[in-house]
């Protein structure tokens, strides 16, 4: 049997793949641009070509590969075979990608929601390797969630857990992409923070970013680190919203660890301090005191490593 797994992280902008060994190390990687408007056939072909190419590039044989793990944004069907719907890949509906990959490579394959895969990656070889339960929030363009309980991913009755980004924290809050109002995502995603920052500027707040045509979360993080008051304020507020979300998570699950990942953590302690403050002020002491809140250790690699880890877990090769 082989010693490697191909882990794939399918995103709206990039399709990333890595050859991962059974200790969770990436020994070779490749990334190509995804055309988010491409038809399913084109994206499936891109995935198949990328797998063939990465095996060749890593100077290993196809027989060295145990299987393939694919992490995809959006909803995966109950059997883990089909991507039902992916908000970032609008034309990608009802594609039986697991079967397509298995048939092409004659290897076992798993299909997992990308945030779940990332959470499993952190549990397997990242920040959570010493704990049995963790909740992970990926704070990017949207807010993804993953839950590990007693060393297993919690996928829920219909395989659609854990949409922590769509937990409602304000009943009459702004409209979310999901159609609901007041979700964590409208406050704590990069998009949400930029929206609130622009509101702050419109209300007259002074900022070094005031005259920029385009404002990104990365620019706000960098300005805050330089001491920009409006940027500091909006990050602090983001931390408080996240703190509220984490209190809910703590009260429901009391996990050993909460891992925060994604571009939004670029502001580091500026984001973490208000999160800690709010949770300590407002959560049951027993719920927060033994829950470590930490940043991701695998960073952008969590998706690739986690997808590979999900395959090993399914085959009962790893933890
Ligand atoms: Zn929502």
In this entry the ligands are: zinc ion
* CATH homologous superfamily descriptor of the largest domain: ATPase, nucleotide binding domain
Query: What class do helices, strands and sheet pairing give?
Result: alpha/beta
Domain module count: 2
**How confident is the prediction overall: mean pLDDT?**
94
Q: From the 3D structure, determine the CATH topology of the largest domain.
A: Nucleotidyltransferase, domain 5
Distance N to C terminus: 18 Å
What radius of gyration results from the CA coordinates?
Answer: 20 Å
Q: Report the principal-axis shape.
A: globular
| Sheet with most strands: strand arrangement | 3-2-1-4-8
The residue fraction in helices comes out at 25-40%
Strand tally, please?
A: 13
Low-confidence stretches: none
How would you sum up the major sheet? 5 strands, mixed
The CATH architecture classification of the largest domain is: 2-Layer Sandwich
Please supply descriptive tags for the structure shown above:
Nucleotidyltransferase, domain 5, five-stranded mixed β-sheet, 319 residues, alpha/beta, 21% strand, binds zinc ion, 2 domains
Description:
It is a single chain. A five-stranded mixed sheet has the order 3-2-1-4-8, sandwiched between helices. Strands 11-10-9-12-13 form a five-stranded mixed sheet. The longest helix is centred in the last third of the chain and has 25 residues, at 229-253. The chain has helices spanning 40-57, 97-105, 114-125, 184-188, 190-202, 217-225, 229-253, 269-282, 285-288, 302-314; strands spanning 4-10, 14-21, 26-33, 65-72, 75-76, 83-85, 93-95, 109-113, 134-139, 143-149, 152-153, 257-261, 292-295. It is 38% helix and 21% strand. The protein has 319 residues and is an alpha/beta fold.
